[in-house]
Amino acid sequence: MPRLVPALALLALLLAALGGPLGTTTVHGDTAVSTEAAASAPDPEVTRSEPHRDEPAAVRVAGACPRCAATPDLTQSSPALGLPHEGGSYCGAVAATNALAWLGTRGFTQLTSPRGLLAMPEHLGWKRYLRTHPRRGTLPFDLVRGLEHWVVDRGYAVETLRYAGVRDHPARHSAGLLRPDLAFLAAGLERDGVVLLHVGWYEEARPGRFARVGGHWMTLVGLEEATGTLWVHDPAPYASEGAAERIVVRELPRGRVLRPAGLGHLDARGFLELADGMALRNGRERAILDGAVALRVR
């Protein structure tokens, strides 16, 4: 018996080195295409295969990204969060939690839920705020409206709240920009602003024709405009936890981006593809930035 404890300790160290138990998690995003269509929209955003990466993305960049260490990097499937359906549709609420908690370190201490950080994604998902559907996720319209409600309810005022992208959103918060670009993202981070990225999962059914099959929210924590490099905290279970993802973006040179619900298509030129370093659900999909939300509080 005296040697049992050292043996168990050695076993624990081996398991930790291997990364813990392996498993799969169903991941959803925003499948509804408008507030009117939310009740009947299909639910295609299911992870059915192993995650695919263009390159290892678990890069610790505290030196290049001052926000990385101070911003939580919660994972939506974490049992500690206690989210419905293993958090599969709560990427928006988790990404918003990461951003609001960082603002708490900048003097806006009441922005964290009174229920605590781990309970905050579920709290944000309430109908009063992000209206997160347990299977279809969070629409941009609801995320923008919900962030405003949250900030005001916590005793602060919204200085800036802007949406750039192709999805339905409150007109008074429109940035007037269909293609979120690096300049919009960089400006959003200035003066203690926070930015949430809305990535569309697209499949290229035919060369140059990109059809949206799902979506995902992430927290932008750093940007190097000259090199097109983003640092993000990705709530997906197949992304790294506790370390920022370093992602290189590139502009699509040509093609058509098909909009959901028969809304036609847009010229793909100028849309940013999240390429090297982006954790994908599978190797068939492309990650295209088709929305972003910039928030500044006072």
What does it look like?
This protein has 298 residues and is of the alpha+beta class. The chain has a single domain, classed as Cathepsin B, Chain A. It contains 6 helices and 11 strands. It has helices at residues 4-17, 66-70, 91-104, 120-124, 140-153, 182-189; strands spanning 52-53, 158-165, 194-206, 209-224, 229-233, 245-251, 256-258, 265-267, 272-274, 279-280, 285-297. The strands form 2 sheets. A 6-stranded antiparallel barrel has the order 3-4-5-6-9-11. A hairpin with a 6-residue loop joins strand 7 (256-258) and strand 8 (265-267).
Summarize the structure.
With 298 residues, the protein is α+β, with helices and mostly antiparallel strands.
SSE layout and pairings?
Layout: H1 4-17, E1 52-53, H2 66-70, H3 91-104, H4 120-124, H5 140-153, E2 158-165, H6 182-189, E3 194-206, E4 209-224, E5 229-233, E6 245-251, E7 256-258, E8 265-267, E9 272-274, E10 279-280, E11 285-297
Parallel strand pairs: 4-7
Antiparallel strand pairs: 1-10, 2-11, 3-4, 3-11, 4-5, 5-6, 6-9, 7-8, 9-11
